[in-house]
Fold this protein.
Amino acid sequence: MSSKMASCIFCKIIKGDIPCFKLFESEKTLAFLDIGPLSKGHALVIPKFHGEKLTDIPDDHLSEILPVAKKLVTATGAVDYNILQNNGRLAHQEVDHVHFHMIPKPNEEQGLVVGWPTQKTDMDALKALYEEVKSKM
């Protein structure tokens, strides 16, 4: 086991070294309540495969993530909610193990608060970006 995995809090939770409020577990996926919730029912869904960013996780280890998040939404009774996944410090990732938040948004005060600072778009530049990204898909 690498030193990053050995020190990873989520890897320790997966191994059972640190307890959690486990909501779902399979061979590839674990879901549990967040101990620093933004609202009642805030839960995390994580692949058991250790990777810091989404691109580090093999596709087959991601196959259950959204279905499990969907089950959490239903189980918590959330009507409005966010599914959030951050990659890197600038993107607000705090734990270097891929994880998805399911955050119920019961009212304006609880849950995730998001700003959306849209930028003016130059359509020619957007078309060039479209062509560049599409060619790499």
In short: The chain has a mean pLDDT of 95. The chain has four helices and five strands.
